[in-house]
Amino acid sequence: MKPATDMELITRLYDAALGRVDWQDVADLITQSFDSVTLTLAIYRPTSSVPDFVASRGFTPAQRRAYQEHFFAQDPVAAEAMRRQIFNRAVLGSDLVDDDTLRRSAIYSEFLRPDLKAFHLLGGELPLPHGELVVFGTHRPEEARPFVHADVRRLDRLLPHLRRALEMRQTLHLAEAHARPLQGTLDLLPCGAVMVAADGLITHANAVAERLIAHGDGLGQRDQRLHAARADQHSQLRRAIEHAGRTTCLRAGGEVAGHLRIDRSSGQRPYQVMVCPLGGDRKALRAGHAVAVVFINDPDGVPGPEAGLVQALLDLTPAEARVVAMLASGVPLPQIGAATGTSYNTVRTLLARAMTKTQTTSQVDLVRLTLAVSAVAMPARSQGPGTRPEPRPSS
């Protein structure tokens, strides 16, 4: 099989970072391209003694454990690389430790030769944010042709892309880890909540939202995307979601991408809709990744958390608790002001105070906290979560 070109390898790295291919496929392609027999790609974290093995080839899980627990401390090549602090560039094992020294080492006689048939090394170490360190190495057996400096130059061209791909992988894992508890919290909401991608693709909907969307009364889905029946309101919804998709994690705290009303063909009161950005690294988000939560409040639906309960649980003032309770019920800020007889700026001030007291940094986090503590304290409603009253007949 013809070895992969540099561009094919780089493309495959980013495909793996975005979850389009498995990292193990990348490992296989690299070993084939460098005519090597083993490969290890691992991330070492200062907070853990166990490395994150992203991919490997030619190592069994037991051999990886043996190296980590016993032979790593005896590895003269790794020790010399750390001593010299050689980062962000490719290096030959023979440039760190001469062949005779390696042959006399315990790791070679007890591990590399009998278990892995590995001798010649080509590798590199790449620092990542937060003190993490990527260790990459690929080997050929002793009887094979040694790696040469042409191989070093080729790996040097790949290492910057490998580092960026792994940074993307880390960012996405973090975003997904944050999304999982958020989905669980959204399922507690008495209002509809839909997580959407920048193009409106629905990635998660809570029980109330599923009912609203299935009912199709002014709001539904088309091609698995959130869709408003009226063209002008659908355009407003799309613009709000697109704005959320341009909001990075550094700007997302407290920001709302849009408030709007969605009219209903039944003649019932319009849905109150609020779009809140989730934030995140726009450069690293894969296609279909959630960028916003769309809160949908049905004025005729079940009530949300009671203000008195919110006040007691979160140690807020009565005014702050009213705002937070209404926000957790999916009521947009302008409607909160109208309902409470206060200005929009006053509502925002009360909300900011509540966020300070609860040590939350965004409206999504404040709603998440409010619903979580309310769910524990409130007795279960007889109708169950996500239940809505039967629609009133249209007049």
UniProtKB/TrEMBL annotation:
The residues covered by the HTH luxR-type domain are 309-374
**Biological process per Gene Ontology, one example term:** regulation of DNA-templated transcription
What InterPro entries does the annotation carry?
Sig_transdc_resp-reg_C-effctor (IPR016032), Tscrpt_reg_LuxR_C (IPR000792), WH-like_DNA-bd_sf (IPR036388)
The record ties this protein, via SUPFAM superfamilies, to: C-terminal effector domain of the bipartite response regulators
Molecular function in Gene Ontology: DNA binding
According to the record, the signal peptide region is none
The name under which this protein is listed is HTH luxR-type domain-containing protein
What's the source species' lineage?
Bacteria, Pseudomonadati, Pseudomonadota, Alphaproteobacteria, Hyphomicrobiales
Record organism? Vineibacter terrae
